[in-house]
Design a protein that fits this description.
This protein has no helices and 11 strands. It is mainly β. It is globular, with a radius of gyration of 13 Å.
């Protein structure tokens, strides 16, 4: 089994920055596509960013140029650096580990962007 634990969420001012971290436990974490998703009130969960073991990344258009996803396979961590935050970024952010027919999710961490 794989367990994912997010941390780093909180309340930030518009234009500010926040770094989310996801700590994974389990074997063969490097084989998983890791990602961050978010779910805002009244909306469906959406992709924020993904990263494969080799380093290739994918971002939602809404966060390109502002967010950066990274991973450390040795430490089994996945981070999401969020800059120039907007109120629209307010959501619960979830860490995800994916392989064919396999998905693991963290419990989520709240990010609120407000004055």
């Amino acid at each position: 089994q794989v367990q994912l634990v997010e941390s780093g969420g909180g309340l930030v001012q518009p234009g500010g920055s926040l770094r989310l971290s996801c700590a994974a436990s389990g074997n063969m974490i490097s084989r998983y596509i890791m990602g961050w998703y978010r779910q805002a009130p009244g909306k469906q969960r959406e992709l924020v960013a993904t990263i494969i073991s080799g380093g290739s990344t994918n971002y939602a258009d809404s966060v390109k140029g502002r967010f950066t996803i990274s991973r450390d396979n040795a430490k089994k961590t996945v981070d999401l650096q969020m800059n120039s935050l907007k109120p629209e970024d307010t959501a619960v952010y979830y860490c995800n580990a994916h392989r064919v027919l396999v998905d693991y999710w963290g419990q989520g961490t709240q990010v609120t962007v407000s004055s």
